[in-house]
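Entry: Probable sensor domain-containing protein
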Amino acid sequence: MLPALMDEPGLQYPGEALRSWLRQFAKTPLAEPTLKLLVVLADTVFFASLGREEGQATRVRIAYHAQGLQGLQAVRETVYIGGQKGKRQAWETLPLEPRSSITDFSVEALVKLAPAAHLPRTAVVVGPREGKLRIQGLARRVEYTEFHAEGEEDVFIIHAPEPGHLVVSTQGREVFRYEQGAPVPPGRRVALHDLLFHEDSAVRSALMEMCSTLVESLPKVQPLMGGNREWYVSNAVQGLIRKMAGLHHGGLIAFLPKQHDVERFRSRGKYVLPPEQGSLLRQRLQRFVQARADLINGAWQAEAGKAAEEEEDPELKKAAAEHDDKVTESDFQALVESIGQFTAVDNALVLGPELEVLCAGYQIAIPRSGPPQVFEARTLQGRPGPHYPISQHGSRHRAAAVFANQHSGAIVFVASQDGPLRCLHRPPGKKKVLLWSLLLTED
């Protein structure tokens, strides 16, 4: 018998909600057999997310392709390495032998196997076999680039980030979200990637202003092949935010603009980095981008007109440049992970201008009058929309609003269990604190 909960007016099962949404919003109409299939996939993932394994909530992610593992293995992504354009396999796959109790597509099988896919960009692969849906193995997506991947339009990722929640993605972009018994209306959320990377974004503009000296210090990389200098700064911030969100613990990260007494913040934090260590994130980013520029810009190639007897083996020089690129990137990403981990402690992680890491555990006092008024941003540029009831949330959200209001130009990201990731920002010279509700593209 179906749960009485879904008898409440306005509540829908996720599969039914997905079918209705696709019929209304899908750019390309889907055939009825495909709709029926997606309904089954969505409902199965939804109910699996309500299960528990070893006392832990089940966070299920599946990748569906009409040709199963073979379809994923055929997806190719464009990459640029050492200035050369090439293709690589977009999914790393691990097949499983078919066994009815293990690989039949069911709620029970997903609950058992889901922990094996609880890694970044990793999913349980589902596809047809002998006329039935089967679990065919595990697959991990290589990191997404800005380029189109051939064949990925036929891959659907269905993900339950929290019990009772459902997200459908394709080509690295979220296309449907289901929470609290209903789909989240399109347009209510902004992709974190767009907020940090899109040139029209008010938050990106504020970030580039507070990191202008850092941006100028980075070497130029051929944009088509390695991203411009601003891209690397946005990517560093994105890594911190994703780490906070991935901890599922709740957290707050505040970025201070220039013209602030950073020592005042450093002295009031519970966990304080020595001043000489506060610049470590910036330094590792600079080393990484320099290594990437040397590789992509071809610094390893022999200089024109150099005497043959003085030339080193270009292949050895290229190999050394590739090694430096990998090592410096790994060192940088490891530090981003470590700093992001500080969001798991109470209160705020505070970074100053130029990505200076100041302190963690910084307590933001909320005045007796309560937090300031907050307005939902309707656009990336920050056009104010309706009043947002920030007081409906807990102390972390109220503290974020207070910090954004007190420090014009600051950028505050907050994660909690009572809703999506959010960003708050009061643009310089403006009176209104703006709020963006964010979504994470497929990670």
